[in-house]
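Lab channel / #folding
Pinned by the channel admin:
"Please post every new chain as: sequence first, then the structure tokens as a reply. Keep commentary short and put observations after the output so the thread stays searchable."

First post following the new format, from NK:
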Amino acid sequence: MLRKLAFLATAALAVSGCQDQASGGQGRTRSEIRIVGSSTVFPFAKAVAEQFSINGANPSPILESTGTGGGMSLFCAGVGADSPDIANASRRIKASEFELCQSNGVTEIVEVQIGIDGIAIAQANNGEPFSLTPVQIYKAIAERPFGKENTAEKWSDIDPSLPNFAISVYGPPSTSGTRDALTELIMEVGCITDPATKALKESDKAAFDAVCHEVRADGSYIDAGENDNLIVQKLKANPNSVGIFGYSFLEENLDSVRGISVSGVNPTYDAIASGEYPGARPLYVYVKNQHVGVIPGLKDFMLEFINAGTRDGYLVKAGLIASPDDVRGKMTEVVRNMTPLTISELK
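Reply from TO:
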């Protein structure tokens, strides 16, 4: 096996300088694909990894659930056998992250949308049923809703029609792509219902972000880390609490939790796929093209990821929302050609 790996590394060195970088500059390589990133995408990547390596067909990929932000930091740190090949992300790579990658020599990043997910707002099945709107969620969890101190302690403080129990929301940490999607797809939508606050987006972006995106830290919003299963357990133990996580975790735990409708729309497969549900978002996987041909099986792994995300694929059975056919077709071509993402696509 060592001779085989040495041969692969030597051959890679002979092909191009980029591949020399990916092997660490010293002919070193490894046989396993290394994946970091989003806890939301993790179970889907794990299912693909299991299928990819079934019956010893390929070495089992190494997966680490670090959160989207943490995964991007690792992914963009450089190229070589000691760096990840793939970053899972529950939101699109930021221009600042792309530029960090470039500055560290990660110059060919391939972006693949693997499906759709929803930001599910959920409660325990034995909790008191109620529904919410983006502005109510914003008022409940924002640090300074509409620029004022958040003094709401109970849901009924926000709206008399809501339950008269304490606001207790378990949600993702600041490093999570789910948190980014929550702030952009739910909180910001509620925030801009106020014309004066909406105007800040053009006049003072930093102030706008502080008012619309910052989450309160007084205990009403509880950072549950990257473990969405922990949020499910907290909801079961605290029926009056609310949880925020990816739709796939709701789908997996319908025996104990249910979705809370947002603007009258429940977080269901069809509502998310159609975009009717306010918290719908695409999910991504990013690949280092410089590692293709050096780390065995990268392109085949990504093709398996796309093929598994069809409407009747095993990832949909695991809770993924399938991308529209035209998007999936485009992603297949992107992977086959390993077409790099450009900074202009992010601005």
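NK: Residues 177-191 form the longest helix (15 residues).
TO: also worth noting, Confidence is low (pLDDT under 50) at residues 1-18.
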